[in-house]
Amino acid sequence: AQEVFINDSVIFSCLADGSQPFTYQWYKDDQLVTMDSRLQRVNTSNFTIDPLQGGDFGSYHCQVTNDVDSMNSSTALLTVSPFGSVSVSPSVVTLNVSENVTFTCEFSGGPDNEIKWLKGGTGLANETSRPLLVNVDDVNNG
């Protein structure tokens, strides 16, 4: 199993041994994968999904065919997580009154990410921008 996040990309590879030439077909949950702008063959035996969407989770395998036979690969389970990672910088800063600080929020993964800035556990009204500029005064300390 491989866990990846929404908007990531993944490449599946299929290796075959025997009499060439081979043809490769890819299946998701035992249904033939239809290639499109997100699902593309990288070369004869590989295909990529980019960007990943929530509905891409499932079991994938390839079918390899030559003039003699046809065989299925083992199954690869793809789990697409809606969660990613978040980091805010700076994490600690000391300023004097009337100085400014800019906080930056970086995130990955997750569908429909939104930023909501909090101070002391309370949301800052209408602050969903990235980065956030704060002027330190007697009200904005802490």
Please give the structural blueprint.
Layout lengths: L1 E4 L4 E4 L9 E6 L2 E2 L6 E3 L4 E4 L8 E8 L4 E3 L3 E6 L3 E5 L10 E9 L9 E2 L2 E2 L8 E4 L7
Parallel strand pairs: 1-9
Antiparallel strand pairs: 2-6, 3-4, 3-7, 5-6, 7-8, 7-9, 10-11, 11-14, 12-13
What does the model show?
With 142 residues, the protein is mainly beta. It has strands spanning 2-5, 10-13, 23-28, 31-32, 39-41, 46-49, 58-65, 70-72, 76-81, 85-89, 100-108, 118-119, 122-123, 132-135. Strands 1, 3, 4, 7, 8 and 9 form a six-stranded mixed beta sheet that branches. Strands 2-6-5 form a three-stranded antiparallel beta sheet, with no helix packed on it. A three-stranded antiparallel beta sheet has the order 10-11-14, with no helix packed on it. The radius of gyration is 24 Å and the shape is rod-shaped. The mean pLDDT is 81.
Write a concise keyword list for the protein shown above:
44% strand; six-stranded mixed sheet; 142 residues; mainly beta; rod-shaped; 0% helix; three-stranded antiparallel sheet; 14 strands
Strand content: 35-45%
Q: From N to C, what is the helix and strand string?
A: EEEEEEEEEEEEEE
Distance between the termini: 44 Å
* Helix fraction bin: under 10%
DSSP E strands, number = 14
Main β-sheet description: 6 strands, mixed
- Rounded mean pLDDT is 81
Shape verdict: rod-shaped
Low-confidence stretches: none
